[in-house]
Amino acid sequence: MKKTHLPFRLLSLWLALTLPWGFAAPAGAAAGGLARVNILADGLTPEVRPHAGVGYMEQVLQRLVAEATYPIQGSTCQTNSSGKLPLEEPWIHATGSIVEVGDNIATWNVCGFSPAILDPNAPQNLEELQAADPKEVAQLSKFDGRNYGIITPVRDQGSSNLCWAYASVNASEASILREGIDPSATLDTLRFSPTHLGYIRFNRGPDLLGNTAGEEDPTADWLQASGSPGYSSTLFSQWWGPVQDGTPMVNTPSVIEEHSGYRMEHAIELDGQRLSSNPAARTRMKEAIAQYGAVTFSYNWIHEVPYDNPSRGGFGNPHACTIIGWDDTIPASLFSGGASQDGGWLVKNSYSSLPYFYLSYDNNSSYVFAFDYATKEEYDFNYFYDSSVDDFGMAASLNYTCAANVFQGLKGSDSQTEYVKAVQVGFYGSGATCDVKVYTNLQDQQDMSDLANVDPTLGTLAASGTATFDRPGYHTVPLEQLAEVAPGSYFSIVVQISGSSPYLRVIRAADCKSYVLSQYGAWQKSGLNVPRLKAYTVLENTSTGLTPEETPHASIDDTPEALTGLMPEATYLVNSAALTADGNGSLALQSEWFGSTVSIVKQGDGTATGNSVAQTLKIQPPRRSRRSGMRSRGLCRRA
User: Fold this and answer.
1) Could you give the 3-state DSSP secondary structure of residue 333?
2) In the prediction, which pLDDT does 623 show?
3) Beta strands in 410-564 (DSSP E)
4) Cis omega before residue 560 (within 30°)?
5) Is 112:49 a contact under the CB 8 Å cutoff?
6) How many CA atoms, within 13 angstroms, populate the side-chain half-sphere of residue 147?
7) Is 186 left (phi over 0), alpha (psi -120 to 50) or beta?
8) Count H helices, E strands: the chain?
9) pLDDT value of residue 118
């Protein structure tokens, strides 16, 4: 959404000159929101907006400018050489504004909306948050993602209509930082491009493998076209993003690949239509925020106030934003127009005139998504036919529950072997179980030139996998073993979905090798109806004359802290270090593995077998690092 009544900069200037405290909070509200902007002279450059966080272990405000002056809650404070300020008693349990002071010559003051002081019952740092059970975190009365260094600075969408793209990249950045999948990604360096996401929506050429023609509309005004985070989830599933800021505005897949460091594994669509009336729906959304760092949200934008309740404000414009926390204790009377219940969501906006605000629980939403990523090293290629961003509107009536896509292997060679590692499934419906099978060498048993009569199961069953997902969206199912795809051969991915009436997402496209199982138990070509099924493959160097060992399928046992499910007395390369499993097939977790993703390779004997394909496994910080209270409703206390 773009603002249509006043350009935001003019509005901010008008408020600064006419309202001594910006948007006034209702009587009784805690200090916070927009503080006064003091314009000292025309043409001065604003200071950088503070992006503080709370370091509760050190009892400090952190991530401020070193040796800078900040008025906070009526006090003038000077940061130390590390950009930190000791917490003061008046700040506890208050949400205070932070105003960085200009030098009166080249800069003017700029206001910020600081994180709420951390609830002492909450995880006290990012490591504890990563180790905590999201269901327990969701029971807290307050949560603010900024306290954990996972919420990147607010960026302004200006006069564009790209709020949906800003919301999506904001939630994606928070997820990657929250889950710690990439040690090189930091709060200061991780910046995805919302404008490129808006551009690529209308400007996509053929995919990297040439299985789709893309979608191109050079006449579209992509800056002003409306959109939704649902488009983002589809584009991310096709690996058209997210890309780093500064990526050239081109639709060349190789350029996208160069500037993209991550693969979306899951886009979890939450129930936003019952948030106002269903506490269980709010709890599930809180769990998603705790687990993935943030979710997208769309609401009826009417005006900018620190405590907003547009559900009582009449007509407005749809606006997408990012939810990064909540506060159950905000009185209903503080929200604009009042509210039917206490509490609200903490919103990260895409307008600098009001970077953060609280939105009453009275408001419902469409397009509530959380995102989950792997680094790009996890998968090399993406085989798919569903190039459109729009789902077919009649997918529910089609009710596809068993479908398949057939592809030709394109990337294997004499020196590298291609394997199918995982299958991504797009579906609607809750509580869905996805049974996935991969069949290879279809050409050995049938004529692949007769597409109308191809049976996607008439081949070698090479791999399978099963997973159950609570919410709809896009979900990646790992295979229990890799499926080798010979160069130029044909393989299929076959998906059966079951549960609480789920059905596969479908698009309309021509000339695709997609199939559906009829009610009579026979496979038939699905015509123009293409299911959203994707095969994720990897390339591994071929060991000449050696058969690779089976890929490990290790799991983590918290008690004791060990990798389990390995072959007893066998040697494994964990992050390239040779380690031998004990007689029970276990390896003790090492301290340097915690909070990182490790590579586990079954070492070959060098005579008959070569090293296996690597298993990658995210190892969370040890649960003992959490305060004991978090194991029982989060009742930890500071010493």
Assistant:
1) helix
2) 53
3) 416-440, 460-469, 473-485, 490-504, 506-508, 514-517, 523-525, 529-531, 533-541, 547-548, 555-557, 562-564
4) yes
5) yes
6) 28
7) beta
8) 9, 39
9) 61
Give the Cα-Cα-Cα angle 442, 447, 449 (nearest 5 degrees): 105
At 473, which amino acid appears?
G
Predicted pLDDT at 346: 94
Q: Are 564 and 583 in contact (CB under 8 A)?
A: no
For residue 203, what pLDDT is reported? 94
Task: Indicate the length of the chain as a whole number.
Answer: 639
Q: Which of 163, 514, 502, 118 is nearest to 327 (CA)?
A: 118
Structural contact between residues 196 and 204, judged by C-beta atoms closer than 8 angstroms = no
Q: How far is CA 554 from the centre of its chain?
A: 25
- Please write the tens of the pLDDT for every residue from 223-235: 999 999 999 999 9
Instruction: Write down the mean pLDDT value for the chain.
Output: 83
When comparing pLDDT for 472 and 601, which is higher?
472
Helix (H) or strand (E) holding 374: strand 368-375
More confident residue, 207 or 57: 207
Phi-psi region of 332 (alpha: psi -120 to 50; beta: other; left: phi over 0): alpha
479 to 463, 469, 536, 591: CA distances (angstroms): 6, 16, 10, 29
* pLDDT digit string, tens, across residues 559-607: 788 999 999 999 999 887 899 999 999 999 998 888 777 788 899 887 8
* Enclosing H/E stretch for 308: strand 307-308
First to last CA, the chain: 47
Q: Which residues contact 486 (CB under 8 A, 6 or more apart)?
A: 409, 412, 440, 441
User: How far from chain centre, in Å, is Cα 349?
Assistant: 17
Residue 13 main-chain phi, psi, to 5 deg: -65, -45
